């Protein structure tokens, strides 16, 4: 069980309110909250006033302890404020379906909440046709607070408007269908090359300037009275470690919805699908199949790059697409016909928090290495902007091909730059990059490393240990 603790955030990033909270553990069920000390200043969007960066740079001569080559690497992943009770429940459900225990829980809560929000929107609209998407933003916004499908359903049946606060957070969607607030876990690898039991939770909120009008549904599609949900999630590919927790969240939500009476008086139906990654056409094949099965909504994809390969096809069919894990800024203003939603906060929030970690640790220089896609490039741009505006020198920003056979060239460039901090924005190929870095004496025990949601999971340590 992860154990959370409170820590003050050392800088208030311009346009973002940051608060450290404890999500609770086996002994604590009520989050503790402390405001971060504010340091406000006029600055461009996504920039920051930060603590002085004159602290001594991390040593570069330390040798990695046996089996602890990843020790000290820290990073972010979206996570609700208190999932300590929910995680065992979804894991127990998942195992009861004949599956192995969950090793990681990244985006399980977001996938669960995506299904709940879709179901409530259909119930509110009175149709599983495309018109239900017009209700999704309202389900997450102003109304009568509720935290379960059954309680929210009762509000709708009484003629009211529910405001669903989910497992993964309060949602509070902007008019473009993405959250205005985010909650992130700050995770760190220990000397077993696995995530430490300790974590810190940080809450962030977008500035009012980012609020946009609601985007209405632009494609008409009739429903048949039975909500059918498909999933487009990674059974295979570079984000496969996210597959099990996301599938578990989807199926757990559907089981609870059906136990509460279903939607429009009928059980929710489900069709599972693999998204693969951008190196294959798996997502297109799956999306085509799901649309042929007349699904009303698709939960996925996990990868922003994968979503961008199928979003036009899905929205043109008048089908809702709801991702539990997309974070690319490229999707914030995409012409999605009012049918695309995500409850993972966009990378304007995550990138700023990652940059804040680098600042707090007193690093004066940094190097950013990111996979070359909409996710990697988007978050790298935010991190670089915040660091540079805060006085940290970015010695290099390199976008790499995630399918490359070797990452020697990229790592050699980092060795030559000799930064204090290295920000690695990767998927599962990150384990090979880190292996190369360790071999060249510039791994996490020699430099300060920071990751993001695409790699901050136990699967990274497992792949590293296995030489994958």
Characterise the protein shown here.
The chain is of the alpha/beta class and 468 residues long. The chain folds into two domains: 1-79 and 190-211 and 346-468, Rossmann fold (3-Layer(aba) Sandwich), CATH 3.40.50.2300; 104-177 and 215-345, Rossmann fold (3-Layer(aba) Sandwich). The chain contains twelve helices and 17 strands. The chain has helices at residues 86-96, 108-125, 136-139, 149-157, 243-259, 282-292, 304-316, 347-360, 374-389, 408-417, 430-439, 458-465; strands at residues 3-5, 17-22, 32-35, 74-78, 144-146, 162-164, 181-188, 198-205, 228-232, 269-271, 297-300, 320-323, 340-342, 365-371, 393-400, 421-425, 448-451. Strands 1, 2, 3, 4, 7, 8, 14, 15, 16 and 17 form a ten-stranded mixed sheet that branches. It has a five-stranded parallel sheet with strand order 10-9-11-12-13, with helices on both faces. Helix 4 (149-157) links the parallel strand 5 (144-146) and strand 6. The longest helix has 18 residues, at 108-125. It is globular, with a radius of gyration of 21 Å. It starts with a strand and ends with a helix. The model is unreliable at 1-17 and 19-65 (pLDDT under 50).
